[in-house]
């Protein structure tokens, strides 16, 4: 049975029947119950495409992730997508995964809207000032940003407080007597890296020391290479701050290779990816920890909310915990 047949059986419009089946609040409880009762009796199974045409919805949300030169999705992004799916799937929304570079991201947004490929857009890891935010706001198209940027447009975003996490990580090491601290952070084209660098510089300024910050792609190899090079200097760092557990794993490998695991302190950001264990780095490790999957769930919930024409702008910044490996309870 098709949706129009069910509507004819009920004596209702296609739009009313579709909205009742999808629990829209403007449909009365009595009508919703009647529609679902008849649908169950006749064995109606919804056709996703037909439903979208009937109510002007596609049934998919586009998730825009950066396209790096490595052309792969890192574990944090995969964990983020898992969290998104846990919320969107029960809501009847599919994920349209879109990878785009900085140069093509604005055109990608325009294509998504004009081709009606999605009902809303989630922007992951925005630029410090992101042109997509203004474009989507001007287009009055539903969107949520995973990340806090300096884009001067009111919009809904959810993020971890990267500035506070990086400040606390660096200050933690200074307070324990370390004066030569190196920070291995992410690419400067991302807002979160800018936020983390601001937090690190604040800690260095507080202790009146010049900052040492290296920006590169988060991966095992870059963490290893930068850590190895710095430790081979005449006056090497005694502590490292890593913006990603991936970089910290590589850095830990370099530290062990040089036999300095008992003399080097490490603080890293841990996003709670189940198959990446902080214990693979160093026994003397501390971390700022926040599960990225939980952040993703909140992003998905906010995206569904923003699809309502009357949805208000909301912003959320969550503070990670500063914990030691012994306290983390992770295997």
From TrEMBL:
Molecular-function GO terms, alphabetical: DNA-binding transcription factor activity; transcription cis-regulatory region binding
Transmembrane segments: none
Domain HTH lacI-type, residue spans: 1-55
CDD domains in UniProt: HTH_LacI
InterPro entries (alphabetical): HTH_LacI (IPR000843), LacI/GalR-like_sensor (IPR046335), Lambda_DNA-bd_dom_sf (IPR010982), Peripla_BP_I (IPR028082)
Keywords: DNA-binding, Transcription, Transcription regulation
Any matching Pfam family: Peripla_BP_3
Descriptive protein name: Transcriptional regulator
Phylogenetic placement of the source organism: Bacteria, Pseudomonadati, Pseudomonadota, Alphaproteobacteria, Hyphomicrobiales
């Amino acid at each position: 049975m098709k949706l129009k047949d069910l509507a004819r059986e009920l004596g209702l419009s296609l739009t009313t029947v579709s909205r009742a089946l999808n629990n829209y609040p403007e449909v009365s409880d009595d009508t919703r119950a009647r529609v679902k009762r008849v649908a169950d009796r006749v064995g109606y199974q919804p056709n996703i495409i037909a439903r979208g045409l009937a109510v002007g919805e596609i049934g998919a949300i586009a998730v825009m992730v950066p396209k790096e030169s490595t052309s792969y999705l890192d574990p944090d992004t995969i964990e983020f997508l898992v969290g998104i799916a846990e919320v969107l799937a029960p809501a009847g929304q599919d994920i349209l995964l879109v990878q785009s570079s900085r140069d093509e991201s604005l055109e990608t947004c325009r294509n998504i809207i004009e081709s009606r490929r999605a009902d809303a857009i989630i922007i992951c890891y925005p630029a410090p000032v992101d042109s997509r935010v203004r474009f989507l706001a001007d287009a009055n198209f539903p969107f949520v940003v995973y990340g806090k940027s300096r884009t001067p447009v009111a919009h809904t975003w959810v993020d971890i407080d990267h500035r506070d996490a990086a400040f606390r990580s660096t200050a933690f090491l200074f307070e324990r007597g370390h004066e030569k601290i190196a920070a291995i952070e992410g690419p400067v084209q991302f807002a979160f890296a800018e936020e983390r660098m601001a937090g690190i510089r604040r800690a260095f300024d507080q202790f009146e020391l010049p900052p040492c910050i290296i920006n590169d792609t988060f991966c095992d190899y870059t963490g290893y290479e930068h850590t190895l090079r710095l430790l081979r200097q005449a006056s090497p760092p005694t502590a490292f701050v890593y913006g990603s557990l991936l970089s910290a794993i590589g850095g830990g490998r370099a530290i062990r290779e040089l036999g300095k695991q008992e003399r080097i302190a490490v603080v890293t950001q841990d996003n709670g990816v189940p198959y990446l264990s902080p214990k693979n780095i160093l026994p003397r490790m501390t971390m700022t920890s926040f599960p990225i999957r939980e952040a993703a769930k909140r992003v998905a919930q906010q995206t569904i909310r923003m699809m309502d024409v009357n949805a208000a702008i909301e912003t959320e910044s969550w503070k990670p915990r500063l914990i030691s490996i012994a306290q983390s309870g992770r295997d």
